[in-house]
Write a structure and sequence with these properties.
It is a single chain. This protein has two domains: about 5-80 and about 155-250, 3-Layer(aba) Sandwich (Rossmann fold); about 85-155, no CATH class. The protein is of the alpha/beta class. Strands 6-7-8-3-9-10 form a six-stranded mixed beta sheet, with helices on both faces. A four-stranded antiparallel beta sheet has the order 2-1-4-5, with helices on one face. The chain starts with a strand and ends with a helix. The chain has seven helices and ten strands. The chain is globular, with a radius of gyration of 18 Å.
Length: about 250
């Protein structure tokens, strides 16, 4: 069974003159445990598609199945979401922020604290549980956000440009850390980025989208061995994969 199966999905935003087409004839099949990255020009509908996969927005046409079932509304037991902004509650500590979705579900305090501590350790923030968001760096905040997304143990994790606001060095470090977390948890990940280097470094498969209305115009299998290393970025294989993505995007008007 596919972790995510999208069939002939299209979406039109209502408005003047019959609405604005945003997505057109999207078909995606993501196997369990795969790391899929979506790239495309600004405004092509990447985030809209991700919100539909999360059950946060409804498509006009087509179907979305997560683990074989529709997802008409958010279901954190099946799908976790990490947004571009960490969006942590400033009055809560790192541990309390991670616990928050578990508290909403009525998880006993001892159980949710144990789970939050496990996730904090997984993202490499042992010893920072009592810190408040203003005491954490940008990269640390995103680690807390990832830990919160993993806390309910969903099989699918959706990530909308989670490292976009970070400097290049921190961004590369966070990408490497994300692969470590992914290799440990074996979640299915769908990741949006504008960085072609980041896309190739992270992905099993890169989906390239056209300008609005967004369509899948290329599917690129990344055959680089795992675990990935920074040295791979200097190889011919890496460069050719990145160039293939760029050639698709630069054709977009």
């Amino acid at each position: 069974m596919s972790a995510i199966a999208v069939e002939k999905l299209s979406h039109v935003y209502s408005g003047a003159e019959g609405g604005v087409p945003a997505l057109e004839d999207i078909t995606i099949d993501v196997e369990p445990g795969k790391f899929v990255v979506i790239v495309g020009p600004s405004g092509c509908g990447k985030t809209s598609l991700l919100m539909m996969l999360a059950g946060l927005r409804h498509q006009t046409e087509g179907t979305i199945l997560c683990a074989g079932k529709p997802i008409p509304e958010p279901d954190p037991e099946r799908v976790g979401v990490v947004f571009q902004e960490a969006s942590l509650f400033p009055w809560l500590t790192a541990l309390d922020n991670i616990e928050f979705p578990l508290a909403l579900r009525g998880t006993p305090r001892d159980d949710r604290r144990r789970r939050a501590e496990e996730m904090l350790s997984l993202v490499g923030l042992d010893g920072f549980g009592a810190r408040y968001p203003h005491e954490l760096s940008g990269g640390m905040k995103q680690r807390v956000s990832i830990a919160r997304g993993l806390a309910q143990d969903p099989p699918v994790l959706l990530m909308d440009e989670p490292f976009a606001a970070l400097d290049e060095q921190t961004r590369m470090t966070m990408g490497h850390e994300l692969l470590r977390i992914w290799s440990t948890t074996r979640k299915t990940v769908v990741f949006i980025t504008h960085s072609l280097t980041e896309a190739v470094y992270l992905a099993d498969e890169v989906l390239v989208m056209s300008a609005r209305p967004g369509r899948i115009i290329d599917r690129i299998e990344v055959t680089l061995p795992r675990p990935r290393t920074y040295e791979m970025m200097a190889t011919d294989t890496f460069g050719k994969l990145r160039e293939r993505i760029w050639q698709q995007i630069r054709k977009v008007p």
